[in-house]
Each structure stands twice: as C-alpha cells, then as structure tokens.
Design brief:
Helices cover 29% and strands 21% of the residues. It is of the alpha/beta class. A hairpin with a 3-residue loop joins strand 15 and strand 16 (367-374). Helix 1 (19-27) packs across helix 10 and helix 7 (246-258) packs across helix 8.
Amino acid sequence: MKEVFVVSDNVLSPLGSTSVENFDQLKNAVSGIKLHENHFSPLPFYASLFDNNALALSGSTIYTKFENLIIASVKDASAQSDIDITDKNTILIISSTKGNISLLETEEQNNKLTERISLPASAKLIAEYFKLANTPLIVSHACISGVLAIITAMRLLRAGLYDNAIVTGADIISKFVLSGFQSFQAISNEPCKPFDADRKGITLGEAAGTLILSTNKQDSKTGIKICSGAVSNDANHISGPSRTGEELGTAIIKTIADANITTADIDFISAHGTATMYNDEMEAKAFTLAQMNSIPVNSLKGYYGHTLGAAGLIETVVSINSLKENILIPTLGYSKHGVSTPLNVSNTVQKGSYNCFLKTASGFGGCNAAIVVTK
C-alpha cells in the first residue's frame, strides 16, 4: 500500500496568513475570538472573524470572500512545494459546509444566484484560477468535512488514482450561519470553554486551511504521514450526538488498527471539542471506550472558534506543527473538568517528543471521523 506524505500546509485565519504565523500565536495563547456588534445579530456575539479591511485577497470581483480565502490558502501551500499542481496526476479536494450561502443575504434570489451559491460553481472558478487539469472533488459533510476530505485524499492516493492531492477548505460566518446555531441555542455568550464544567456552547469562526499530500516521499521535507482514517455514524439524531460515544469510539479503534499501531503509540489527541454539553461529553466517552483517557487531549476551538468545514483541516495542520516543533498547544478556556469520564485535557504548553497524533471530528447527522498522523 502506498504511503501518503504531507508536503506543505497553510492556515489562513484572523491569527495569521501562514501556518507558522498561526502556530506562533497559539504558543503565546493568542485567540482570534472577540466580541462583535454588527448586522449578523441584534445582540453582540463572540466569534473569530477576519478584519475584511486588512485581509489580503486577490482583488478580483470575480471571486467571493469564500473563494478568495481558498485561493490564498492554496497559493501559500503550493509556494512551499515543488509539486506542479497543474499536473494531471494532482487532484484538488475542497471542503466546506456553507460555501457561498451568505450571498442569499445580499443578492437577488433567482436561478442565476442558485447556480452561483453552489459548491461546484466555486470549485470550477478555483480550478480555472490555478489552471488545474482535473475537476475538483467536493466534500460537504457537516463538521467532519475537513477530516473526511483528508481521508478521501489518502484513499485516492493509495489507490494510485493520483500522485498528489491538494486538500483545502474554508467557511465564512454570516447572518445565515450564526442565526442557525442561535436557533439551536448553541452559541455561547462568552468565548467557548471546551471540556470545562462551565462551558456554555459554541463560538464560531472563519478560516481556511490547506494540506498538500503526495505519495512521493522525496516531495516531503518532514516525512510526516497520513497513516489511516475511518468514519462512522451515530444514527441517533439530526443534531444531537450519540449519548454513549460508541460510534466515534468505533471509528477511533478502527483508525488505530488500520495504522498498525496501538493506543500507546498516540502521543496526543486533537479533539473536536466544540464546548457544547453533548459533544464534549460524547467525545470523552468515546476516548474512554478506546482506552485513551490518559493521553493528552486538546481542543483548538478557544483560539479559532468552530470554523465548520475548515476546522478539521486547520486543526490537523496545527497538530502537524506540534509534531514538527514537539510542542502541544493547550486547550484555551479549560480550567475545571466538566465531563463524566477522566480526561487528560492539556491546559498548559507541553514540550515533549511527539511522533503521532489522533485527530477526531463529529457533526450534525451523527457523523464522526478520525485520522492518525505520524512523523
């Protein structure tokens, strides 16, 4: 079976425009979450949002903010790589949950708009911008989209269908998105606190992320590999996760088995950690079922908020940088244990010898995903 290596990466967020800039901010406990007052909501709300006046995009009116974020993220990642992304052996995979849905708030609703807000329309424009040889693939599967896009790329490369993959994703926050989570009463009235006893819900965020993957080890300067991945579904409720954690636990156990390692080989877990009562409880139970209670776990939502289709990607990139620098980023907002099972939640910067991590994600509809990444 072919191995899949990480060639280069990018995180574009309110904290910085490169992976290095973002990781430096995280090491200094800097969060992008701020209190906002704008037309999104009649009440002030906390979120990690771009300052659009300072955001360096393409400058073309052809592309929306969503498309510009992806273009900028892919450009930075590809600039770090020697891979010719226009080659026929390279596939682009785009991850997003909402895409251009915000256009519903500003444009006249007609058939033209219906086409413009579709993810295939965005994918076509992005492919034309980079002069790509292949039609991009789109992964839009709730909040596991970013992790599932990585799994999809890994499987395509292992099958020999392509030599390289550009995995990219983004989401922006709009009135449509914010009001949807508000209708669930899921938005916290303060910056989110993953796994904490006083957590009050989700904080949303905007970001884009990119991973360039290859089956050619020579293209990877770090030798970091995407080893395995698995998905599962709770079949429990359209918005409420499993009450037992069994289904995410199954995906975790399968992912570790497929990587041909044991739980003892996992140095840390990058959790989904949305800071809702039910998600954090479900993840904690899943880690318990997988016998991973003692392994350090973190959530990055306290820095970025929940970035939806970008979350799995940017959190994987940050964790890859943890492997590179042997530094584990703490869970911002966590102070008092708030789930029913013991967890080793990281709440200070930890230095060590990190070689392998597990990344998990869960989303509406009961979907779960997990990957193992090693160096």
